[in-house]
Design brief:
mainly alpha
Length: 84
């Protein structure tokens, strides 16, 4: 992975984590926390969405949408675990 690809990956992860934190109220994790949530969310979205036959597109926008959906799922799971 080149430096440019890594930078794009981190930016998409940060944006996805930030959007996930806005959509799932109550999670302000900071820049590093948002990046981690977004990156993990990207893996969740990239794995889960094609298996559900929802969509699987290419490009930065589709990757951001997929990572954001994964981040939302991760944040909702964290909320359920914290309540239990």
């Amino acid at each position: 992975m080149g430096a440019e690809s890594l930078l794009i990956f981190l930016i998409i992860g940060a944006l996805a984590g930030w959007l996930g934190g806005i959509i799932v109220k109550g999670y302000g994790l900071g820049l590093i926390g948002d990046m981690v949530v977004g990156i993990i969310g990207a893996f969740i979205g990239g794995w889960l969405l094609p298996r559900l036959n929802l969509f699987h597109g290419t490009g930065l926008v589709m990757e951001l949408v997929s990572a954001t959906i994964g981040a939302i799922i991760l944040l909702l799971l964290l909320r359920v675990i914290r309540r239990a």
